[in-house]
Design brief:
Layout (H helix, E strand, L loop, with lengths): L2 E5 L7 H17 L12 E7 L5 E8 L4 H13 L15 E7 L5
Antiparallel strand pairs: 1-4, 2-3, 2-4
Keywords: Membrane, Transmembrane, Transmembrane helix
Main location: membrane
GO cellular component, one term: membrane
């Protein structure tokens, strides 16, 4: 299994924000193919630009996992997940998201 954290956001967590993060994480996680032979549980951080429709415009690697094959797999999963789920509250939409991913679930 792959673990994906939703968009990072400053401030206190809220129910709608948590649902939004979980929806994005679930969609991307469903598209992530873990590279064979991967050891450990490295984390990669990406910035994703999206349109108000959730369509992914750009994906940038902000911090590498240290495993190029994993970084590439995560980027492909993000792109395949376009359009990303939208928040129930349109005021919580963010054009640029920070997404953190680990190949193994934290639980």
């Amino acid at each position: 299994r792959a673990a994906a954290a939703g968009p990072s956001r400053q401030g206190p967590p809220g129910g709608d924000i948590d649902k939004y993060r979980a929806a994005i994480a679930a969609k991307v996680r469903g598209n992530l193919l873990r590279p064979p032979g991967l050891s450990g549980n490295p984390e990669a951080v990406f910035e994703v630009d999206q349109l108000p429709s959730g369509e992914v415009l750009n994906v940038r690697l902000k911090r590498s996992s240290g495993v190029p094959a994993l970084d590439e797999a995560i980027e492909r999963a993000i792109r395949r997940s376009s359009p990303l789920p939208l928040p129930d509250n349109k005021n919580q939409f963010e054009r640029t998201l920070e997404l953190k991913f680990r190949p193994l679930a934290d639980d």
